[in-house]
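User: Here's a chain of 258 residues. Predict its fold as tokens.
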Amino acid sequence: MSAQPLISCVCVTSHRPVLLERAIRCFLAQTYENKELVIVYPSADEATRQCLSAHASTALKPRPVEQPDLTLGAKRNISIESASGEYICIWDDDDWYSPARLTTMHGALTASKKAAAMLTRLLIYHAGREQAFLSHERLWENSLVFHRRTVSELGIRYPSKDRSEDYEFVNGLIAANLVYPVLDPTLYIYHCTGVNACSASHWEALLRRSTLLSTEQSAQVKRIVELSVDPSTGHSQLQTEWFRAPLRYVPHSAVPRP
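Assistant: Prediction complete.
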């Protein structure tokens, strides 16, 4: 039996098998061994069912739901209730994840003694523009990993909403002083596909505050997101000095005048 606590990655999806395929491949490539991926999807979604059937892994835990009109927040709660892990990791179906994500985030939780961890920066790839960005500094709701029992005992749940449900959930964690910030942007590529839950204006606001990467870096991120290379190779490419050294973490105005 593994000495590692079980981490349940929770994914809500619907009729997006191509994106889900990448999310599954990123999950299966995780170096953290004791893990499961709970996938909540509409019971009538045959494309998702076929995608799941194509992967013969006992670590995948399908959770079809009958009610077609459930909000995203309600589905997120179902995914957590269907999980078996001591820890919960949000695993959205439209993003790319480094194989080191679970190992790194669990290590941060263990070292900090906090019940939740979130990335303060991540990479963003805008498919329409074929451009990659280093995000501005904030706590990114989609990167959340948390200790399930601690959060449950405090009664913190996702509100029954289709937008901003993760924002409200995370604010509950912050108010309870549970969150530890982690700086490692190459763990996560936030993928603007054009069919995300958030609006185009939301993306524009994010990109205005983020830093555009070079043409060469953007091309590299594009190859990784499109799985032209497998997740492990993609992770290695993001760790090179060529990619990481130019990343600008600190704006010119970061030091206030005396």
